[in-house]
Amino acid sequence: MTQEQWQSIYETAISWTKEAGENIRKMMDDTYEIHTKVNEHDLVTDVDRETELFFKNKINEKYSTHRIMGEEGLGDVVDDLDGTVWIIDPIDGTVNFVHQKCYFAISIGVFHEGKGMVGIIYDVMADEIFTALNGEGAFLNEEPLPRLENVTMNESLLSFNAGWVMKDRRLEALVNQSRGIRSYGAASLEMAYVACGRIEAYISFNLAPWDMAGGYVLLEEVGGIATNYEGNKLTFLNKDTLLAANPAIYKDIMKEIHGK
Ligand code: 2AM
Ligand code: CA
Ligand code: CA
Ligand code: CA
Residue 5 — left, alpha, or beta (φ > 0 → left; ψ -120 to 50 → alpha)? Predict the structure, then answer.
């Protein structure tokens, strides 16, 4: 595919995402059903499913050869990244959606032959759309995001769920060395915040491809680093851990955790 064709897919994906966000804002005012998935804290609503269906219908109609990997399973069964694959989380941060009515996002990564080409993360209530097209840079509401600047650990804000400290006490050292910890409860937004410099690193121990795909493309465009917690490349085919960081502190974090 040519860069022009990718530009067109990028623009189309942005316009669908904004439309989907508009639909979510409308559906929020109605009563919708809330179901639990694996456990009582793992929620899904009709709005998650409706939103995934919206993308599935749009993509099938316009790009019939593209495949869809979506959290709610309305797309295809995808076990490789051959061809073009849309990796979609219709609502990232469903607990926030239900409880806080803000701080949730639509997250999309479009991959081609395993390479991240388009990344979109839309904070629906703040109306902030983070977008990236491979080779063309990353943007927040169409304003270009600069490449990430040099920082030190002691002037960095880090983000992870407080519960992870119980799972890995080595994180305590990071708490002490950094300027502070934040936690937003939506992985895609936390990756977008690393990409725009609101925080310097985000760590999670249990993420799915759709939580990370959009953010990965954004980070690549601003010089950020995203690997799993062991420092290995993300595959976007399985659940994994994540360390997404400003390159200046990525090494410091790896050293603190793994001693190398
Ligand atoms: P979700 O809201 O789409 O489920 C919350 O800390 C973050 O982790 C959110 O991005 C949330 O996405 C994700 N998350 C929650 N439960 C998860 C699970 N069991 N596996 C992977 N990611 C999960
Ligand atoms: Ca979920
Ligand atoms: Ca998610
Ligand atoms: Ca979700």
Answer: alpha
